[in-house]
Amino acid sequence: MDLAINSVHHNKVVLVENSVDLKFIQAAKRTKGSRLRVVTSGRLCFQKAPWKFGKLADTLSYYPVDFLWIGGGEDDLLRTEKISLRNLKVTGWRDRKGVLKELSRADVFIMTSLWYRDWE
Q1: What are 31-75's pLDDT values in tens digits?
Q2: Can you list the pairs that 56-59 forms with residues at least 24 positions away whose Cβ atoms lie under 8 Å?
Q3: Does the pTM exceed 0.70?
């Protein structure tokens, strides 16, 4: 944030909190025989490589595993890769409370991003 404030006029800088402190997420309570829940979270865009998440969902579609993309954006990225969406659901945009609720129900979190930007 300091880099942004020092680089541009400070009244044009807005902090967007997109990280999640794990202390705000309660562990999922699984019951015997329940399906495994694999999630990711973020904007559906090329940089997040949604086709990788989708292909994993396709590969495991015959197992008791559900995949959830928490977020929205360029949904056609999944369709153009011919991802079946048989066991993959995209929630669309959620507020922070909604994202935390979905994350608390997850058994596995996967991030398929192609790259990240190290700002420091």
Answers
A1: 778 889 999 998 888 888 888 898 899 899 899 999 999 998 887
A2: 56/110, 57/83, 57/85, 57/86, 57/87, 57/88, 58/83, 58/84, 58/86, 58/88
A3: yes
